[in-house]
Amino acid sequence: MEYPLVTTAWLEANLFESNLVLLDASMQSVVGKEPILYDEFICIPRAQKFDIERVFCDTTSSQLHAMPTPEQFEQGATALGIDRDSLVVIYDNQGIYSAPRAWWMFKLMGHENVYVLDGGLPQWLSEERMTSESYQLTVIDEESVPYVADFQPGLICDANYVLESLGSDSVILDARAAGRFAGEVSEPRPGVRCGHIPGSVNLPFGELLREHRMKRVEDLQAMFEQLVGEQVGEQEAERIFSCGSGITACILILASVASGHDKAVLYDGSWADWGSNADLPIEQGA
Question: 59-69, pLDDT tens digit by residue?
Answer without folding.
Answer: 888 887 899 99
